[in-house]
Amino acid sequence: MTVAAEALVSLDTIRAAAHRIAGVAIRTPLLRAPFAGVAGEVWLKAESLQPIGAFKIRGAANKILQLSAEEIARGVITYSSGNHAQGVAYAARAVGAKAVIVMPSNAPKIKRDATLALGAEVVDVGVASSERLAKAEELVRAHGYVVVPPYDDEAIIAGQATCGLEIVEELPDVDLVLSPVSGGGLLSGVAAAVKQLKPDAKVIGVEPELAGDTAESFRAGKIVEWPAELTSRTIADGLRTQSVGVRNFAHIQAFVDGIVTVTEAEIRAAMRAIVAATRLVPEPSGAVAAAALLFHSGELPAYRKAAAIVSGGNVAPALLAEVLTETAL
After folding, report:
1. Closest Cα partner for 167 from 158, 180, 159, 176?
2. Considering Cα of 94, then 100, then 103, then 108, what sign does the dihedral take?
3. Catalytically active residues, by annotation
């Protein structure tokens, strides 16, 4: 499948999504982060403060709020390691639709429990993202559910793009935006919004070294898939997808300036730095963008004002306590 340039989400589509989801997702703040030793101003986009603790509510709400009454009656289904699951469950509850979530067996308990608490039905499968997709397709055939994809979908991309729209509206002179990347929904949407509003601003994706399939894909100019046994090694459970989506990669190729990878130790150190600087609580996936600023400045474009997205805050208390009490790095 190829994606034509005219299929990339437009500013009008993104602005329509922002209006549509305003009653479900919130407009999150940009917080100044005075990181020691980091040049320029750094601002953190606090998506961890969304009602479900992550940006995923944006895309899920934009998709579900456009469903017909007949589709709502059929119910919705998705496949997710946690945050998208909660976004779909939350948005489905808002419109009165049944939500079925296919989750990997290694999904964090905090995310699984939160999804169940929102009234969704959870179906467990193995750790591979391909297993989640296969099970969801099986259930669609059996029950007629409407699929709400986690990232490779125009409505999802447009919903996530509202995060980038808000960054530029609040910080008009931003010249560098950093976003986590896994399946690519957030990065592709944010990059589309930022570049169409500020063509001279730079947009950089960030992912763990241990799940660096998008970085490899970006260098190769084609989508490269990594096996689940590799991507599942990272602490950043929200970034374990085995490959970037087709639509997402088309947006990344059109709008993104580069992909940086960070180590596990750098992710943990960035979590501590975010807590110390802003009192935000990031999950590991939410700390990777800040980790690039803290430890990979030489790989980034020069900037005066940078915005890094803290994509989520759904971290297990025991893991947070472990990370905060470490002294490494």
Report:
1. 176
2. positive
3. 56, 311
